[in-house]
Write the structure tokens for this entry.
Amino acid sequence: MSWVTVIWSMCAAACLTLAFVHALVWANDRSARSNLLFALVAVGAAGFAFGELWLLQAQTPEEFMVALRWSHVPMWLWTVALAGFVCTYLRAGRAWLLWGVVGLRTVALVLNFVTGENLNYLEATSFKQVTFFGEPVAIVSGEANPAMLLGQLGVLLLLILAADAGITAWRRGERRQALMVSGSVAALLVAGAIEGNLIVWAGLQMPFTISLFQLIMLAAMGFELSRDVLRSSMLVRELQASEARLRDSQQRMNLAADAANLGLWVWEARSDDVWATPRCCAMLGLPARDRFSLADFTERLHIDDREAVTRGIRATLEKGLPYEVQYRVRLPAGGERWIEATGQLDHCGPGGAPRLQGVCADITERRRAEQEAARLRDQNAHVGRVSLMGQLASALAHEINQPLGAILRNAEAAELFLQSATPDLQEIDAIVTDIRHDTQRAGAVIDSMRALLKRRDLQARPLAMTELFGDVWRLLRADAAARHVRLVLAEVPDALPTVLGDRIQLQQVLINLVVNAMDALDDARRTERWVSVEVRRGDAHCVEVSVSDSGAGIPAERLAQIFDPFFSTKASGMGMGLAISRTIVEAHGGQLRADNREEGGASFRFTLPVFAARPAG
Amino acid sequence: MNAELPKVHVVDDDLSFLNAISRLLKASGFEVLAFSSAGDFLRHHGPDVAGCLVADLHMPGLDGLGLQDALAATSNPLPILFLTGHGDIASTVQAMRSGAEDFLEKNAPKEKLLDAVRRALARDARERKARGRHDELQARLDALTPREREVLGHVVQGRLNKQIAADLKIHERTVKLHRTAITTKLGVRSAAELTRLVGLAGVAAAEAATFP
């Protein structure tokens, strides 16, 4: 049994197997160049193993030399391929080292065929056979070929290259790869170099066994490479597991949304494609199909709401603002529903396309409740106004009877004038003009009273403070005079911005505050009796109106209570005035508060938001 | 004492009504002076001002009732006629109690208004006359000497000359002399007239001796 043949053949076969396997990997995935280069190294190693076998079984020195000469071809292959593999696998190594290796070994190969017997020997001097593994193998000694040094230099460069690449990879943190690859390469090259040089230069009497070293190195590197294969199969398993988790989580989310009666939707802006849960489709009155377009959605909207929704979508797309709209949808079976949709923009669509996703909820009930509340509030305000009018009734009657009385007296005077033979027509003309003015005056007071008494909803319009003050003056002048209170309505500053408000309801608030102030003066039996109403700019967003009096102020412990419904310090009071006033101010988006003035007396202040004209578009 | 021509003084803070009522009164033949505030009127007012006052009840500053009080404190309280846009019972009662001539609504019928004005003017004339007489009487009484006044006090009580003499420790003849001076100065003819006059003038009776 020729152990040498067996061992060397098995070595070659193992190398070829490794080459085959990794060539297959590369064939599957052309980008796996490390695998290709490794295959080439293995092929080279296999070739070299055959060469070494031939050497061992050479019968004549000439055969030996020829075998050695031809062995350098596979040796060139695996040296060059190994250099390439090290650089490719570790993704490191200086380029000049690589090319140095390739260059030197190529030159050495050429020299191998051109000089002497082969690269190692110029000529053979002796030939004998020794026993190795129980059979004769050839040993040769001869004159060393200096050209071998070039080859050795190439090998040295390869060693340096491996070391360099290994260090770079180590520093990068890929310690195991660096160690395995560079370490095994270094070990092989060093061992091979030592053996080779000892045999050729020092005349050591042993055969070449470099193939065996090669096999060990290939095994190490092959193991390293196959870890990648392992890893990718692990990744596949992980991917499957995470996909399963994702499906689970999606299901839970859908369940939760359904339970909360929310509809989920995602709109891919670029492809105009909306995905929505069945609940969402049902809410919007759309047939339960999985996908629809934005146009399908807007078609279901109430005509009046379409613009607002489109505007909201545009704002979100252009400025990334959160999407919040409320709209009505017309149901196919008739009727309508109020929906509130909220959503957010991200850019996670395919290719970074914009994507809007969110929820929608049915707020019909809530909306109805809000409307009912608003209606009750306005009703309440109306009641307050009627009550207020009752308080002012006598003063207002006086206010109307003044012009009526003047009209009557003027008419009687005119009658008398006309009875004379030569009536003074100029005087009569003046009388008629006065009658007309007084009629208008009475009419204005009646109109104000009627407006105040009418039941109506809050109508917010741009409101000029001057007009509001004028109304209040007209309605309160007589009462203030009758009660001996100096009512001062300060001049409205020119630069005051317009506010948005309901003129009648704000009149109600002002009247309520002024009448309260006058009542306070009565209670306190003050000698200094004035009530002052002023308006000024608050901060950038609001206007502040204040009603101050020269009364005794509000006791500190009552300051919070006075706005409570049914709280009154007056025997005949219902206690609703301030509560209603506060509701009105808050419905306007402002706040009403009471303080005591430093100089004595109370001051009630309320703010109204400034009317900012809507930007176009 | 010659007072000025009697005029109707109108006070109202509502200019429109002030003009209208002035017109009406002028057209009805009265002399009218108009004031837009009680203060203005009081500044104009003096002892020689004659006529009546037509005032609004509710005015800023000094109102109708306050004006009434202020006027009553002067030596020449003109009769007041109140006009009002709306009256409450309390003010009406207060005004009438304090001696207002009348209390009317601003749109009361013309005849009622003019009637009231005439009554007020007539009252003013009467009161003025009475005051005139009173003043004159007072002047005459002031002309008496203290002693004469003393005697007058006793005469008014119905004492005989003899008794007066005894009380005052003077001769009866002196008493008679005083009595003559009194009746001359006062321009009366009988004791009864003297008593009445003195009663009118409101002279206080002298301290009477206590009767057992």
Notes: The two ends of chain B are 48 Å apart (CA to CA). The beta strands of chain B are 7-11, 32-35, 51-56, 80-84, 102-105.
